[in-house]
Amino acid sequence: MKKHHQDIRDLVYVHLNQSDQYVMSYGIEFSEFAAAFSGSLNHLLLLKHRFDDADFNMHTLLEYCPEDRIDKLAAEDVYGYGNFCWIDFTEEEVLNELSGQELAELLYLGHQKQHLRVPFYNKLGNRFVYLAHDDGWYNKIYYRSFKDFFHLLSESIAGKLSELKLEKSILGIRKKRTYPQVNKEILLSLTPFIKEGICISLRDAEHQRTRIDIPIWVMGDFANMDDMYEEYQQISNKPYHAKLIFDKRTKEWKLNVI
Q: Which of 20, 136, 231, 258 is least surrounded, with the fewest CB atoms within 10 Å of its CB?
């Protein structure tokens, strides 16, 4: 039942696991992730990938993407890689200090998309571990700080709305309208729902003259995104639990919890 990845972009599912410091998601792709952290991402140690412009580290026998090539990587068809997994690190020297045990943990992460211990390494100074299968379809991202997750979500919703809602000008030419990122406080207030698992549907957004309403359903915990998608199809006919509202006049976001 897997959709083509063009269908991913107007539906976002996120489930936050606080104790293990990761978020499961559907609908947010690496290109959006790289854009949200543009200029602040370090080098990426590639655990699973098909990027052909990577450098090689002799100690780990793994390839890595230097920070100045991240934009090039983000422009690739990462979805087409199948598995795409990485951990960021500060400088190449630190890779040479990894122990056999630490390397084993990293290889296990890339292979199983699960951790043996919560994967934040002081040597690497990593902020993230990014584990994806069919990027955007199944993503599991570990965050050293959940502030980064809320930043990504706020940027992603605004970006998706810009992509979807091309306004017709007087001449009938479609022009892209940009939207401000969603206030972090609003998204933080959704945390209890996000811990249960929510679907934010730009697909079902109501576009009115003065506002845009984006429905949110609390859906539960899914590791299989086929099952999540089927649940969305059933739940999307039912009343939503909350909605994000963009006021076109004040250019501000609000949240309405039902």
A: 258
